[in-house]
Amino acid sequence: MVKFCSLSSGSSGNAVFLEYNGTVVLIDCGVSCRRICDMLLKIGKRPEDISGILVTHEHSDHIKGISVLTRKYHIPVYSAKNTFENMPETNCVSKDFQHFITSGNEFSIGSIDILPFSIPHDAAMPFGYAFQMGDKKVSVATDMGKIDSEVALHLKGSDLVLLESNHDTSMLIDGPYPYFLKRRILSENGHLSNDQAAKLAVSLARTGTTKFLFGHLSDTNNSPDIVLNTMLSSFEQEGFYNGKNIDIAVANRYSPSKLYTL
Ligand SMILES: [Zn+2]
Ligand SMILES: [Zn+2]
Fold first, then answer.
1. By three-state DSSP, how is residue 93 classified?
2. Boundaries of every domain in the chain
3. Average pLDDT over residues 30-37
4. How far apart are CA 251 and CA 103, in angstroms?
5. Is the dihedral of CA 4, 8, 10, 13 positive or negative?
6. Which DSSP helix (H) or strand (E) runs through 227?
7. Interval between CA 245 and ligand 2 midpoint (Å)
8. How far is the CA of 144 from the centre of ligand 1 (A)?
9. How far is the CA of 123 from the centre of ligand 2 (A)?
């Protein structure tokens, strides 16, 4: 059985839990080691259960707790060589635990088959991940400035997708952020808007994806209600109704989402 949940989501820190047939992996570790351990405990797991950590990219909201967690529990970490090289010294991973992976090359941790793929974001070598576990597929894609055809292709066929829905575009444009930051977020290497996420999600629903968890919401330029309402109206226009033929949820900023079982 596949078990999946977002432990923490947003610019204050990201971490995702995935388990299949006794193998546990984390995707990112952007909160403190102590908080990760607390949140794992809430879903009945311990840090000793983790077989590997997959890092999407080197921004601090994705690696904040990784240095302490790996040193304390001797957990292997997987990411692009460039990503390890660009981690700040305070958050870096000891060379003993670094495992280099490359976009498009599948590898396995225990019973989980993993395909890293490139995503458009302003980091050294940012990855999304597609996980194949028996006949179930789960994908994680956050921190993307746009949806390109490669990303859409890798997400296709997923049973469950964790997708970024960072901002409401008009809230961002009219909001308090300085101009340079607005430009960065809106750029093709920035973050995905609710409308962009909705468009991709609906196209994935058309090809069979039924579970959507939207995450990495901006605290200033978005809200869970706005995301949910944007998604519900986009899905309903295409004949998908939450709780009936589709399951839509928003990942919490500071606490675990519901635990999905597939
Ligand atoms: Zn980032
Ligand atoms: Zn981020």
1. coil
2. 2-254
3. 96
4. 26
5. negative
6. helix 224-237
7. 30
8. 8
9. 10
pLDDT at position 228: 98
Query: 2-254 maps to which CATH number?
Result: 3.60.15.10
Question: pLDDT of 176-219, one tens digit each?
Answer: 999 999 999 999 999 999 999 999 999 999 999 999 999 999 99
Task: For residue 79, list its beta bridge partners.
Answer: 100
Torsion of CA 3, 164, 229, 12, to 10 degrees: 90
Q: For 148-179, write each residue's pLDDT tens digit.
A: 999 999 999 999 999 999 999 999 999 999 99
DSSP state of 90: G
Angle at 205 between CA 3 and CA 120, to 5 degrees: 80
148 C-alpha to ligand 1 centroid (Å): 17
Question: What three-state secondary structure class fits 155?
Answer: helix
pTM over 0.90: yes
